[in-house]
Amino acid sequence: MNVYVAGTGMTKFGKHAENSMELSVEAAAKAMEDAGIAPEEIEELYVGNFAQNLFEGQAHLGPALYGSLGLKNNIKATHVESACASGSFALHEAFRAIKGGFAKTVMVVGVEKMTAKTTPEITGILATAGDAFYEAPCGITFPGYYALMASYYLKNIGGTKDDLAEIAIKNHYHASKNPYAQFQREITKEMYYGSPIIAEPLCLYDCSPISDGAAAMILTSEKKDVELASCEAAVSRMALAERGEDISWLEGVEIAGKRAYNVAGVAPEDIDVAEVHDCFTIAEVQNIEALGFYKHGEGIKAAKEKETYFDGKKPVNTDGGLKAKGHPVGATGVSMAIEVVKQLHNEAHNQVKGAEVGLISNVGGSGPSCVVGILRRS
Ligand SMILES: CC(C)(COP(=O)(O)OP(=O)(O)OC[C@H]1O[C@@H](n2cnc3c(N)ncnc32)[C@H](O)[C@@H]1OP(=O)(O)O)[C@@H](O)C(=O)NCCC(=O)NCCS
Fold it and tell me: Into how many domains does the chain fold?
């Protein structure tokens, strides 16, 4: 059974007064309208969310959203959690439900409402996606994990901090054209170097922000003009110390990517546009190398050489990425897929000319949970 995209919808990412249910309903209602389907036609619901129990006191989002959305028939409605990859793991479950012939029409919603807490509280909640028994007691947080990987990369693999600055500048430039982005403003190198250090060598403009938002997608077995050709997952060891000497290499992305290419029957060079997990600027480099777009040590120059701009030879994060579009954790994976769908519909704000095949790569934690999906015009 082939899997197609029937409709999409999302909220703007940023700081919202609405709670997670209100954001989810907005995104889901837009997706149903876009697909032209009624609530009773949805046969399964997967809600990707990391930690609404800790952010808002609401766990168990599947049934909560089933009721809020007015879905019918006591369908399967469940909450999918895999840290920052929760949204794409929800997409993966929906893909499998249709591929396996269990359902014809499935809704995926990704959501996170983060901003009601303070930055230290949020940092602590996010840190629960790391290793709580050995790493967290050392005081490490997510900026810290990626700072360690960035330090290793810059010292042993190649590149400079200036190359990281170019990635932030590129993604802010893309976001400046995207009305759904949290930061619709460009940044300069002076602003980058003038911003505070968050975790050496990463400064404010290397980091994705704290965000609220929701994104929804309806998948169907009925033929539509965009196919979700594959949506594959892989895991790697949770603790950085268990990952071998080169801690900058994302083995889970490499393996999920190979599985996704294999199922879709495409190769890295066939990808016209990619949305990859740039929770910190170094992560964009790690993803585009593990996905086989660039050799290890060469991806760090791609933004500086303008290759990953929307009009470059390998466009990456054309909506601004997590860096500037925002990163409401559970919504991110679904919003990546929405941007690729827009590209394939020729409706993106930074349109890649003639885009036929697109890829998403969404990563949970410091690299252990990975989903790679491939979408193409059908
Ligand atoms: C980087 C970080 C610590 C900044 O938080 P903060 O110091 O509390 O920042 P504030 O919310 O007080 O914002 C201060 C200013 O910086 C801006 N800002 C905040 N985060 C930003 C970011 N990541 N990029 C660009 N600007 C940012 C705000 O808009 C604000 O600007 P203003 O003064 O013009 O309004 C926070 O965004 C963070 O923790 N990011 C990482 C999130 C994360 O780890 N996600 C999981 C990834 S795996």
Answer: 1
